[in-house]
Amino acid sequence: MDDGHKKMLNELEGSDRELRHGWAVAVLAISVFLSAFHLYVAGFGLPGIGSKTFLILHLTIGLILVFCMFPIKKGMRQKTIPWYDVVIALVALAAGIYIIQNQTAPSIMSGRPTDMDLFFGVLLILLVLEATRRVVGKPLVIIALVFITYFFLGEFMPGQLQHSRGDFERFVYEITYRNNGIFGTPIYASAQFVFIFILFGAILESTGAGKMFIDLALRMFGKYKGGPAKASVVASGLMGSISGSSTANAVTTGTFTIPLMKRVGFKPHVAGGVEVAASSSGQFLPPIMGAAAFIMVEFTGIPYYEIIQSALIPALLAYVGILFMVHFEASKHGIHGMKKSELASGRKLLIQQGYLLIPILVLLYYLVVARVSVNNSAFFSIIVLLVLAVFVQRFRNNMTRTAIGACGVILFTVLFQFLIAPINQGLDALNGILNISFFSAETIRWKPEIVVLMLIGIGLALVFALSQKQLKVESTTMRYGFSQLLSGFETASRNALSIIVACATAGILIGVITTSGLSTKFTSIAIGFSETLTNAMPDVLVTDNTQLYFALILTVFACLLLGLGLPTTATYVVLAAIVAPVLTDMGVHVLIAHLFVLYYGVLADDTPPINLPAYATAGIAKAGPVRTGIQGFKYDSAALLLPFVFTLNPTILMLTDVAWHQMVWAIFTATIGMVAFASFIQNWLIRKYHWYERILALITALLFIQHNLVTDIIAVVTLTIIFILQFLLSRRKIQNP
């Protein structure tokens, strides 16, 4: 991503403050510290501090960076940090220090906060809301304010919404000092899991991996009908899974793919829409799923491995839907692929930059095979990534000098483990000198895997460098060094800010829901309404799943409404707290309920007019943002029925113990259903549909939702008949033009 597109991305996300000189250095230092601190914690654990202190530090530093980077409103074009934002940042620091120092005070432990406790609690809530407004936007703040208002006016609410818990002291105490408010599940997931994967993605991007993904995808799909668009879908899916931001992903890949799509014949707003859909849907794709997978672990209590296993097939089906949408679009307008001479050699690409795939394989090994902790998996992957990025180019340029340097690095790494004890003793002594309790006798710890991974990384770097020389493949021009590492660290901190403040605000919502008892009331209201609608239906139309159908439809509208204008992670947290319990109380498996709200939360992120990825891609495509957003929603809507499919047919989530042929049949019918629905939306299969064919295609797609052998066979036969009719009519048109 060039500087121009970085600037555009920052402006879209509300940060058009371009700091210079000392201000830039200060913000860089804080950003690098935040990333380095999380990298340390991921590898070695907490340095003698409690987990609550870690969460407070995570949020406090995040708030400081927000007020340093994000102006009070867009369009100010500031080159420095104004005095009032410096003051606010210092106030955030003071609030964080106070809460850290007093988290175990008698007043807090007894549940009787002092006036000073309440003052800093209110201060923290206001800081979180203002930071959220600057970074995420007004929608989430408005939702938070509505919930806060409900908390205090609960006694005036009608019916089941009424409650009598609206006490000011209780509100501040629960939200800021207990573990079910700001420092609850969302911020815990953000600090413990999400940040380290944002860092992994930022470092991977800083090595040029995004361009490599695009080139590989073009090599695989570029020559086919609508090839650049299909390559965009695949490349954006790969980057979208790793990236925590659909907007950043859209800019990263769209910079390369949108001009190619326009060149082969896609209209500008269509090219931008394809990129929007592909970038956003990466949030479904394991192993990282943007960040949702790790937050889902905290909400559901289901092991990470089971979550990504269940999410894999639906995610692939979502991309099948987008790919067929692209294929039908290209068929309609006669858009061909790229010439083979325009595409890079696959072998050349793998020899040149294939080493950037190895850290992802390492990540998958530790997550799926070795089953080590999520944090350690990311840490080990980052080590391998950095070793490869640093040494491949240097081995290529100067084999002897780099080999000597590599031996020195390995020797230092081996010897460092023997220096840990005296270093820890020195750090522990600093506690008495500085009158702090930050360091401990185990501040720096050792992991034997570090040496092994560094040896493997250096060995692989040597193999790739020799292969490039042997086969006379040009190496990439990028020489990865300290400046690129700092850039990756800074990018990670910046990208994490929206998630940090959104999770903190989501904690306020969860605190209100928990303290007021709204969760059970909302669930009973939704279930009651679904039951009322079911009773109003004629008996002949009522089935065992009718009430669940109504609940699912209501859930869809709630997801699309609550998710408007929110980043995907914030949307999922809000929906997981408010909407998912409705489905679980109706007997839906907890994982299915959370995947259901995640899918429609992502679709909400694509819904115009509040659609940041569309504004980003529209700027690259030179198209209207609203029109681009509509196209993005259109392409994503291929997966509109998918959550209904896996809710009523959990087989594709691998949650049921069935025979292999039943699994194959379930995946086959779900795939055909996606194709049928995509063809209905595009009004095209082999040729343009007649009106009755299009209606039949919709009926076919709907029949696949109800998991039943009879309806599945009817749907397959119907779609086969449509295909044969379309094929015969198209042949007749060719023979008799």
From TrEMBL:
Pfam name, any one: DctM
InterPro entries in UniProt: DctM, TRAP_DctM-Dct_fused
Top-rank taxon: Bacteria
Keyword Transcription: no
Entry keywords, A to Z: Membrane, Transmembrane, Transmembrane helix
All copies of domain TRAP C4-dicarboxylate transport system permease DctM subunit, residue ranges: 123-398, 468-656
Transmembrane segments: 21-41, 53-70, 82-100, 112-129, 141-161, 181-204, 311-328, 349-368, 374-392, 404-423, 450-467, 496-514, 548-566, 573-602, 663-684, 713-729
NCBIfam families noted in UniProt: TRAP_fused (TIGR02123)
Name of the molecule in the record: TRAP transporter, 4TM/12TM fusion protein
Species of provenance: Gracilibacillus kekensis
